[in-house]
């Protein structure tokens, strides 16, 4: 029998990881999902995501978490839209398997009875509790997928200060005392729930999986006015790439979609057409409001992490923080998400594993959100997920990703993965995929049996290198 070197390396790596895992006990998971958060954060500042403000985004709590975590600089979602992306990373299946490409379908009805991350932990003895926005909305998740949770799921509705008349606004801090904003109430719910698992709590000694889904910086960009002080107007700049790439095919474009629903945008009569853009003062106002909402959100995350530490739960709790996709803030003239440009598919992914990532690890290996499920499972010492077969519709529990634990011991490891992100079909093009490689990205547009390849290089995705 001939043993390949690749098999030897895989065996030795498994031994190393197994040895590390035996050295600590992480029985709990705090799973934080943030809506529309692109990796425009202090901890991501650098060549992978140049800061768009000076000083940079004020995110001290997420940055502090990142300093004791493994920070994935180049993580991408499977589809840059809330429900498809969340369904994908929660089941570790790609949209082509879940058949969720829009905001209407529930995967258990249209595809298969796939196990979710919280459901898996519940099935393995954890108390699974969720609040805020984890699944997209009740109507596309069977009312927040009750089978995933040990206790009834808890959502918080927007408060009186969070109306949808304007696309952004700052509210007086004092007004939030009597009428807390939605994320304030979600953070408070999370803090209360953590107390149940602390010493003296009614669920003490019970391992937990706590999922906390924050709303901001999703539209409307609302935050207490105090957070805007971090962004004096002169520090907010216009996008340096305000126009689409040269020879960009129309299918790569999306209009200003959800932004157009707000009264202030309707008044502008913005078309969202290719080569159009919003007025400069509108763009600057929206960008400042988005940044302020990120800083407000960061404070809410910090309040939960502070309570985790105060209750002495931090030393045996894995903390995972991700965004559900990236976001356009006027780059290419685009707003929101729902494209395959890197700004839409690139999302933050941070995982803290006590005892393994305490010194901070940064990796630039390309990874995908379908990798999250198997990574959390392996980090928790639970039975590993099997790899999905080519047709996995009848397989309840498997992964179309792979565990990222090897990057904990070797962050420079080149994990050879094919990057595929899809958006739904439309009347002209059957399917559109974006492939991210180490130094470039490629878009494939399928129409009948003809494929057109467009490759863009550089962070701004302005240069078209070739068309075949």
UniProtKB/TrEMBL annotation:
Pfam families: Sulfatase. Gene3D superfamilies: Alkaline Phosphatase, subunit A. The keyword Hydrolase applies. One of its GO terms (molecular function) is metal ion binding. The keyword Calcium applies. Residues 27-381 form the Sulfatase N-terminal domain. Keywords: Calcium, Hydrolase, Metal-binding, Signal. Its cofactor is Ca(2+). It comes from the Eukaryota. GO terms for cellular component: cytoplasm. Belongs to the sulfatase family. This is Sulfatase N-terminal domain-containing protein. It comes from Dreissena polymorpha.
């Amino acid at each position: 029998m001939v043993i390949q070197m690749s098999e030897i390396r895989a065996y030795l790596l498994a031994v190393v990881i197994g040895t590390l895992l035996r050295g600590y006990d992480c029985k709990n998971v705090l799973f934080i999902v943030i809506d529309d958060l692109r990796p425009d954060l202090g901890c991501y500042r650098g060549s992978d995501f140049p800061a768009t403000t000076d000083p940079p985004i004020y995110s001290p709590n997420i940055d502090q978490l990142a300093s004791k975590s493994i920070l994935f600089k180049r993580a991408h979602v499977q589809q840059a839209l809330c429900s498809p992306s969340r369904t994908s990373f929660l089941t570790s299946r790609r949209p082509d398997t879940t058949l969720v490409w829009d905001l209407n379908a529930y995967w258990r009805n249209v595809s298969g009875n796939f196990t979710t991350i919280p459901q898996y932990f519940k099935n393995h003895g954890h108390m699974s509790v969720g609040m805020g926005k984890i699944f997209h909305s009740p109507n596309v998740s069977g009312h927040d997928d009750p089978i995933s949770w040990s206790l009834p799921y808890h959502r918080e509705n927007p408060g009186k200060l969070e109306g949808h008349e304007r696309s952004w606004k700052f509210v007086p801090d004092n007004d939030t005392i009597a009428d807390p904003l939605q994320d304030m109430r979600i953070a408070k719910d999370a803090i209360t729930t953590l107390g149940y698992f602390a010493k003296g709590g009614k669920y003490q000694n019970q391992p937990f999986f706590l999922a906390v889904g924050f709303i901001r910086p999703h539209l409307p960009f609302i935050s207490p006015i105090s957070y805007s002080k971090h962004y004096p107007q002169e520090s907010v700049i216009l996008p340096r790439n305000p126009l689409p790439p040269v020879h960009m095919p129309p299918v790569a474009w999306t209009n200003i979609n959800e932004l157009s629903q707000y009264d202030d945008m309707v008044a502008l009569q913005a078309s969202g057409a290719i080569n159009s853009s919003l007025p400069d003062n509108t763009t600057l106002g929206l960008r400042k409001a988005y940044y302020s909402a990120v800083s407000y959100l960061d404070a809410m995350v910090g309040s939960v992490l502070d309570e985790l530490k105060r209750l002495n739960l931090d030393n045996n709790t894995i903390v995972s923080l991700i965004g559900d996709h990236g976001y356009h803030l006027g780059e290419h003239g685009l707003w929101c998400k729902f494209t395959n440009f890197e700004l839409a598919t690139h999302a933050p992914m941070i995982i803290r594993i006590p005892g393994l990532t305490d010194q901070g690890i940064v990796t630039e290996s390309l990874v995908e959100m379908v990798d999250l499920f198997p990574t959390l499972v392996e980090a928790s010492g639970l039975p590993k997920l099997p790899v999905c077969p080519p047709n996995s519709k009848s397989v309840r529990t498997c992964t179309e990703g792979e565990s990222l634990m090897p990057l904990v011991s070797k962050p420079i490891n080149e994990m050879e993965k094919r990057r595929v992100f899809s958006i739904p079909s439309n009347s002209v093009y059957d399917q559109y995929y974006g492939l991210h490689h180490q130094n470039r990205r490629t878009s494939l547009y399928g129409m009948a049996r003809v494929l057109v390849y467009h490759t863009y290089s550089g962070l701004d995705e302005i240069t078209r290198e070739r068309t075949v």
